[in-house]
Design brief:
Elements: E1 2-11, H1 15-26, E2 31-34, E3 52-53, H2 60-70, H3 77-98, E4 124-125, H4 131-144, E5 149-152, E6 155-162, H5 163-166, E7 179-186, E8 191-202, H6 223-230, E9 235-236, E10 241-248, E11 256-257, H7 260-264, E12 268-270, H8 290-304, E13 309-312, H9 318-324, H10 326-334, E14 344-353, E15 356-358, E16 370-372, E17 377-378, H11 391-412, H12 432-449, H13 456-479, H14 484-505, H15 525-532
Parallel strand pairs: 1-2, 1-8, 2-5, 8-16, 15-17
Antiparallel strand pairs: 3-4, 6-7, 7-8, 9-15, 10-11, 10-14, 12-13, 13-14
Helix pairs in contact: 1-4, 1-11, 2-3, 3-11, 6-14, 9-10, 12-13, 12-14, 13-14
The structure holds succinic acid.
């Protein structure tokens, strides 16, 4: 088994992982960055459409208030203040000045600002409707040039290494649980390596792909959360799964995100009869916080019996729509919907994991030398529901604070990185059909029983299904040669169980976790969506 040693092992190469590599390298640390695909594909942040909050220093108290209100007053005030305090300088120095990300500007060169749901002001900068792609495009080119950052593409983390579980020295099991890196699979060569690191950083995004309908990229099944849990790290707030209200929905077409910025620029939610329905639900109308809009759509779908509602953009000229939202325009057109002339069919889908691996504001989890950043982590910044366009900003800020704290720790503490045990792999090859079928069952169970509207009975059913599935998958996992899909399946069932467990323990409806009353009609829009297919 090959062994690599590094100061910092970063698992995941989205905005959080790449930013950490930048900041750690700028402190002189060696970094090994692993990504499950090629560097330029895969990460969720690349597909972020809307934008990134920029003006955190302009009326900071107003932004703090918007984050708190969106969270239903459940966010952690210390995490909110930290984001607001650190945000603007990180965006300005790294994204605007250093990487020169092509954000949209006015004719006189000023950065343009837009609004999204829950924001009381225009404070979000953007690059058309491909902000994530614009940022990560620059970032990926940049990290490839960094000496001291070794990028391992097509490498998937299998399990975290800890002193107590993996050291070759028996007495190490008496030490506190301490992370010393990870076993990883080179999925092209089929080889397993051990990467030993002083600091291990989880930046694997959230877990949207454990739900049938999601805006997340393939493979985003809660890898970091599942791995952290297996070594005993604390995970919190996992019942709070944010559903994005507006995901393109049309028969025989792939789902895709329709950015909240579409409503920020004047789009209005209407039902199949052409009636605007949000103004009676919330003073901010179509731009209310996401949990409120998503549930209002859900109710609308139940009462109308229709599979989707629509965004009406008729107040905008076709020229404006094509210029401001070129990617959404093209994708919808490919599905036969010309959004410059007709309303956009949309429905909610799983989008963002507000909970995750518990960390302090410097990314430190409850396991020594194990960090989590970005969507994988939970500092309490989002509480029960996230404010739009905070996620890319959180990636930057959490990466920066964590890298700086790690640099200080590495300079001042001593680290014990012993040899680790060989990975023993069975020879038998897993049946991919079984893997795909199990994955489908996880996704449909989560969508049907642990979706936007939950009930104790459905959660109980989900719990039983997943616990039986877990047993199957665990023995399957132990008896077959490792592949990427098998690793994904094992982490997906673990993440799903964690979400169900958290949802079952919390009977209070708050933000994105809504438990229906006994007498409430919670018929599923999904059943209608299935009919569409
Ligand atoms: C969107 O553009 O609506 C998504 C951006 C986000 O989740 O903050």
């Amino acid at each position: 088994m090959d062994t690599i040693q590094t100061d910092c092992l970063v698992i995941g190469a989205g905005l959080a992982g790449c930013s950490y590599a930048h900041y750690a390298r700028s402190q002189g640390l060696s970094v090994t960055l692993i990504c499950a695909d090629e560097l330029t594909t895969g990460a969720n942040s690349k597909w972020a459409q809307g934008g990134i909050i920029f003006d955190t220093s302009y009326h900071p108290e107003q932004l703090e208030r918007d984050i708190m209100v969106a969270s239903g007053d459940t966010a952690n005030p210390a995490a909110v203040s930290s984001l607001v305090r650190e945000g603007q300088s990180a965006v300005q120095s790294l994204l605007v000045d250093q990487l020169k990300v092509p954000f949209d500007r006015s004719d006189d060169g000023e950065l343009l600002r837009t609004r999204e749901g829950g924001h009381s002001d225009k404070r979000i900068i953007f690059s058309k409707d491909i902000t994530g792609r614009a940022i990560l495009g620059r970032f990926h080119d940049y990290v490839r040039t960094l000496d001291g950052v070794s990028i391992l593409e097509n490498h998937v983390a299998i399990d975290l290494l800890t002193l107590s579980h993996n050291s070759v020295y028996p007495l190490d099991k008496y030490k506190p649980i301490t992370c010393i890196g990870a076993y990883v699979l080179d999925s092209v060569q089929g080889e397993i390596k051990a990467i030993r690191a002083k600091k291990t950083v989880l930046a694997t995004g959230g877990l949207g792909q454990i739900f049938q309908n999601t805006t997340n990229q393939p493979g985003v099944v809660g890898h970091g959360i599942a791995m952290a849990k297996r070594v005993g790290a604390r995970v919190i707030d996992l019942e709070y799964i944010q559903f994005h209200p507006t995901v393109f929905l049309k028969k025989n077409c792939q789902l895709f995100l329709v950015s909240e910025a579409v409503r920020g620029e004047g789009g209005v939610l209407i039902n199949s009869e052409g009636k605007a329905f949000m103004d009676t639900q919330h003073p901010m109308g179509s731009l209310a916080p996401r949990d409120i809009v998503a549930r209002a759509i859900h109710r609308e779908l139940i009462s109308s019996g229709e599979p989707c509602v629509y965004i009406d953009l008729s107040s905008k000229s076709p020229h404006f729509i094509k210029d401001r939202f070129p990617s959404i325009y093209e994708r919808a057109l490919a599905c036969g919907v010309d959004i410059s002339r007709e309303p956009i069919p949309v429905a909610p889908a799983a989008h963002y994991t507000c909970g995750g691996v518990y960390t302090d504001l410097n990314g430190r989890s409850s396991v020594q030398h194990l960090n989590a950043i970005g969507e994988t982590a939970c500092t309490g910044l989002h509480g029960a529901n996230r404010l739009a366009s905070t996620s890319l900003l959180e990636c930057l800020v959490s990466a920066k604070l964590t890298a700086l704290a790690d640099s200080e720790a590495i300079a001042n503490e001593s680290f014990h990185l012993p040899e680790v045990r060989e990975w023993i792999s069975p020879e038998k090859t897993a049946d991919e059909v079984l893997i795909r079928q199990d994955m489908r069952l996880i996704k449909s169970t989560m969508w049907n029983y642990v979706g936007l509207v939950r009930s104790p009975r459905r959660l109980m059913r989900a719990r039983r299904i997943l616990s039986q599935l877990y047993e199957e998958i665990d023995s399957f996992y132990a008896g077959n040669r490792l592949t990427r899909s098998l690793i994904e399946l094992r982490n997906a069932v673990c993440a799903a169980q964690l979400v169900v467990h958290a949802a079952t323990l919390n009977s209070e409806s708050k933000g994105s976790h809504y438990v229906a009353r006994e007498d409430e009609d919670i018929d599923l829009p999904l059943e209608r969506h299935d009919v569409l297919k």
